[in-house]
Design a protein that fits this description.
FMN binding, 12 strands, 375 residues, two-stranded antiparallel sheet, 40% helix, disordered C terminus, TIM Barrel, alpha/beta, 12% strand, Aldolase_TIM
Length: 375
């Protein structure tokens, strides 16, 4: 197959086809798969597609400004790269390629607990680096990861709260998923990363790893322990219910991410975009509100901002770009998000992000500021 040139990609989602063509089938199913029957995965996309933006006119959009500040760091666009594990499975340069592309694009990069490159190497690439944490059974290992993230220069801690156990990802189970040879969790030694030595029929190595390492007893009271051990801003990722959002803000979370894990956890969970307005209203400005699950275009970013998000996290398209063309592919995908967002802003009559936040929408959830109080 002829290698894809980044210039051949005209939209972020264009990278999916070239990525699927070069990835091992097991890895392709892993990145594009979902929990259960894929109901939530498809619902995320359908819900975003159903939202229509009501453009404003005569607003002077000769220049558009998408810059913002996320958790104290200036960003060129209201977006960050979501935490995604084992990026060496997609390209030999793995997380380093993505982190460098995010740096060049002016976006934060989120290091996964299960990164295939150590946080120290990723942070050394420059740019804004966040660290994603799974709540591990071994508190000593958890404390060590926190210390490493701080020492490396990470500027925020993203605690994933929607994964007490892994969703039943049927494609991984049917294919007896295992990682390619040589791809390991860089923050654990080989005996402690929880990966089984060999694949077994009907068993996903990643699911076995999660069951062995991640503590399902995580609760609100554990946040105090976490706060005592890190000075980093705390982000809770995986919130859909306004009551949980209010609790997070009340306990001092610096940000939340409205997310259903891209359809990879509870199949049948609410589409994240439909949860966003009520969650934003429940927070009432007490912490930053981010969004992920289904973002595929700059127009999707515009919709999320209009419905109450301050920024989005982008996931699968980044891995598609990485698989298709390495760092250049990721850079192209991120640049396309920026280009499409600026185009959408101009066509919607929005010279800046404050104007985007004031847009009306139809066909989807009504922003809670217009709908009334959350009950």
């Amino acid at each position: 197959m002829t290698a894809v040139l980044p210039a051949d990609l005209l939209a972020p989602a264009d990278a999916e086809g070239p990525a699927s063509a070069v990835l091992q089938p097991m890895i392709e199913r892993f990145v594009n798969g979902a929990a259960g029957d894929g109901l939530t995965l498809r619902a995320n996309r359908a819900a975003l597609d159903a939202i229509c933006v009501v453009p404003r006119v005569l607003r002077d959009v000769s220049a558009t400004d998408s810059s913002t500040v996320l958790l104290g760091a200036p960003c060129a666009v209201p977006a960050a790269v979501a935490p995604m594990a084992y990026q060496h499975a997609f390209h030999p340069d793995g997380e380093l390629a993505v982190a460098r592309a995010a740096r060049d694009a002016g976006m934060p990069f989120t290091v996964s607990t299960f990164s295939s490159v150590p946080v120290e190497e990723i942070a050394a690439a420059g740019g804004t680096t966040w660290f994603q944490l799974y709540w591990l059974r071994d508190r000593g290992v958890t404390a060590d990861l926190l210390a490493r993230a701080e020492s490396a220069g990470c500027s925020a801690l993203v605690l994933t709260v929607d994964t007490p156990r892994m969703g039943r990802r049927q494609a991984d189970l049917r294919g007896s998923f295992r990682l390619p040879d040589g791809v390991r969790a860089a923050h654990f030694d080989g005996s402690a990363d929880g990966l089984p030595a060999a694949a077994r029929t009907g068993v996903s190595a990643i699911a076995s790893q999660t069951a062995g390492l991640v503590d399902p007893s995580l609760s609100w009271r554990d946040l105090e322990w976490l706060r005592e051990r890190t000075r980093l801003p705390l982000v809770l990722k995986g919130i859909l219910d306004p009551r949980d959002a209010a609790a997070a803000a009340g306990l001092g979370a610096d940000a939340i991410v409205v997310s259903n894990h891209g359809g990879r956890q509870l199949d049948g969970a609410q589409p994240a975009i439909t949860a966003l307005p009520a969650v934003a209203a429940a927070v009432a400005g007490r912490c930053e509100v981010l969004f992920d699950s289904g973002i595929r275009s700059g127009t999707d970013i515009l919709k999320a901002l209009a419905l109450g998000a301050g920024a989005v996290l982008v996931g699968r398209p980044v891995l598609w770009g990485l698989a298709a063309a390495g760092q250049a592919g990721v850079h192209r995908v991120l640049d396309l998000f920026r280009t499409e967002l600026h185009n959408a802003m101009a066509l919607a009559g929005c010279p800046d992000l404050a104007a985007v936040a004031g847009l009306a929408t139809t066909g989807g959830p009504v922003p809670a500021t217009a709908a009334g109080s959350v009950r």
